[in-house]
UniProtKB/TrEMBL annotation:
Start and end residues of each stretch annotated as Disordered: 1-23
Subcellular location: Cell membrane
Keyword Transmembrane: yes
Any one Pfam family match given in the protein's UniProt record, by short name: MFS_1
Organism encoding this protein: Nocardioides humi
Membrane topology: Multi-pass membrane protein
InterPro entries named among the record's database cross-references: EmrB-like, MFS, MFS_dom, MFS_trans_sf
Domain Major facilitator superfamily (MFS) profile: 29-493
Transmembrane segments: 28-50, 62-82, 94-122, 153-171, 183-203, 215-234, 240-261, 282-305, 317-335, 347-364, 370-391, 412-432, 471-488
Name of the protein described by the UniProt record: MFS transporter
Keyword terms: Cell membrane, Membrane, Transmembrane, Transmembrane helix, Transport
Biased composition (Low complexity): 9-22
Organism classification: Bacteria, Bacillati, Actinomycetota, Actinomycetes, Propionibacteriales
Length: 499
């Protein structure tokens, strides 16, 4: 059915597996890729803690600043399906380096902007750079590691995503407090240069092969995602005007058209639907979409609560997430080893269940005047659960796929994660706007959720309720993920269950 499978049965087939020779060591290449991958994922959440400061400095609304993150996510999500194929065609290493260059230069642009509109535009370009990089990291890892080590390597890749989601706000708080919000972007310049030098030297240039690019699929998926996300995020602000409803309906219609076209396309579809015949790949995509949504959504209400209600500085607010980061980092290695031995239903079921418990504890106690430990303890519980989700999901997603579909699988997996992030950010903006409008009419529209503490105790209590209720969105997504991972089947890879 797919030209891809025919192409790779030709002389390029050995290159597709690209198992390293006995004397080669693929781990230095992995660490080189992880630096760049970590940087682009940190930028998904680093803005959240700086939100109140950016609102104040650029005279923006809450919704405007959420778009600073949403624009990045949307520009990241839409091209990521095609950039995976471009890497196969022109070389994964070189597309990664090109994307890293675009991302780093766009980071400089972000830090130099003086209006929220210019910042959003710069973040779009930054997102395109990230979209060029991400599929290459997963595809290169799949090709350079032998099957016996691939699970451990993908566990590192997945753990990097999980740790980056919580390190972002902490790093953002320290930089915003110490140097100004612009430095959450300027920090990418030295990191980008180091990542480029390491990747140039350590990442191998793998053989390439021809592709027929599904440009119609790119257009359909891109326009559908833009219409859906813009409509959802702006709906409350525009009071769900008929044209907003039309945008959302049009996005859904184009999404259905995209799926139908992928099925009818007999050449080489953008998303080979045969991937989803593997149940574990399908379940992993549901799980990672939930985690993308959670990672993009829960930071905004929590950071606004910490700074506007508690009066925390950006650094103090970000440090509330430190227990979550510590547990995720501490458990990454032991959990990674479990992915080769235990049924993914056990590992991820435990992870989602524990994270949900921790999040419900956080929701229960999120009120004005609570002690720091009453936030830190649930965050630690959430961190334990997340450690059992990020790496195992990434390791399980491509485990059963044939090598000739590894690149396509990497593109789909990353696109789905980003789609979840985009929709999560859009939905949390709607919820925060709606709850603030309910409790404090005019606060969201006029940017009154600034960096300063709210002096009136009654208003602080109402603001706290608005943020607390907004956090039900990520709690629900943890519950959805828990149900989804119960449908995992036993992995089929060689050596499963061996000690």
């Amino acid at each position: 059915m797919l030209t891809l499978s025919v192409t790779q049965s030709a002389p390029t087939s050995p290159a597709s597996s690209a198992a390293p020779t006995p004397e080669s060591n693929p781990w230095p290449a992995l660490w080189a890729l992880v630096i760049g991958f970590f940087m682009i994922l940190v930028d998904l959440t680093i803005v959240t803690v700086a939100t109140p400061t950016i609102i104040e400095d650029l005279d923006a609304s809450v919704n405007d600043v959420v778009w600073v993150t949403s624009a990045y996510m949307l520009a990241y999500a839409v091209p990521v399906l095609i950039t995976g194929r471009l890497g196969d065609r022109f070389g994964s290493k070189y597309l990664y380096l090109a994307g890293l260059t675009v991302f780093t230069l766009a980071s400089l642009w972000c830090g130099l902007t003086t209006t929220v509109e210019a910042l959003i535009l710069a973040r779009v370009v930054q997102g395109f750079g990230a979209a060029m990089m991400t599929p290459q990291t997963m595809a290169i890892i799949t090709r350079i590691f032998p099957p016996a080590q691939r699970g451990s390597a993908m566990a590192v890749w997945g753990a990097t995503a999980g740790v980056a989601m919580v390190v972002g706000p902490i790093l953002g708080g320290v930089l915003t407090d110490g140097l100004g919000w612009e430095w959450i972007f300027f920090i990418n310049l030295p990191v980008g240069l180091v990542a480029f030098a390491m990747a140039w030297r350590l990442v191998p240039a793998l053989p390439t092969h021809e592709h027929r690019f599904d440009w119609l699929g790119v257009a359909l998926s891109g326009v559908a995602m833009f219409l859906l996300c813009f409509g959802i995020q702006e709906g409350h602000q525009m009071e769900w005007a008929p044209w907003i409803i039309a945008m959302i309906a049009g996005g859904l219609a184009l999404l259905v058209t995209f799926v139908v076209w992928q099925r009818l396309n007999r050449a080489e579809p953008l998303v080979p639907l045969s991937l989803f015949k593997d149940r574990n790949f399908s379940v992993s995509n549901v799980a990672i979409a939930c985690m993308g949504s959670i990672g993009a959504s829960f930071g905004f209400p929590l950071m606004l609560y910490a700074q506007a209600v508690r009066g925390d500085s950006p650094t103090e607010a970000a440090l509330l997430m430190l227990p979550m980061a510590v547990m995720s980092i501490f458990l990454a290695q032991p959990v990674g080893k479990l992915t080769d031995r235990l049924h993914p239903r056990q590992v991820l079921g435990f992870g989602f269940a524990i994270s949900l418990v921790g999040f419900l504890l956080l929701l229960w106690r999120l009120e004005p005047g609570i002690a720091v430990w009453e936030i830190a303890a649930p965050m630690a519980v959430i961190g334990i659960g997340n450690a059992f989700i990020w790496a195992p999901t990434a390791a399980t997603a491509n485990r059963n796929l044939p090598m000739h579909l590894a690149g396509a699988g990497a593109g789909v997996f990353n696109a789905v994660r980003q789609v979840g992030s985009v929709l999560g950010a859009a939905a949390i903006a709607v919820l925060m706007d709606a709850r603030l409008a309910h409790y404090l009419p005019g606060a969201a529209a006029h940017g009154e959720a600034g960096a300063a503490k709210i002096p009136d105790p009654h208003i602080a209590e109402l603001f706290s309720k608005a943020m607390q209720q907004s956090l039900w969105l990520p709690a629900i997504m943890y519950a959805v993920g828990l149900v989804a991972v119960l449908f995992y089947e036993k992995p089929r890879h060689e050596g499963f269950g061996a000690h």
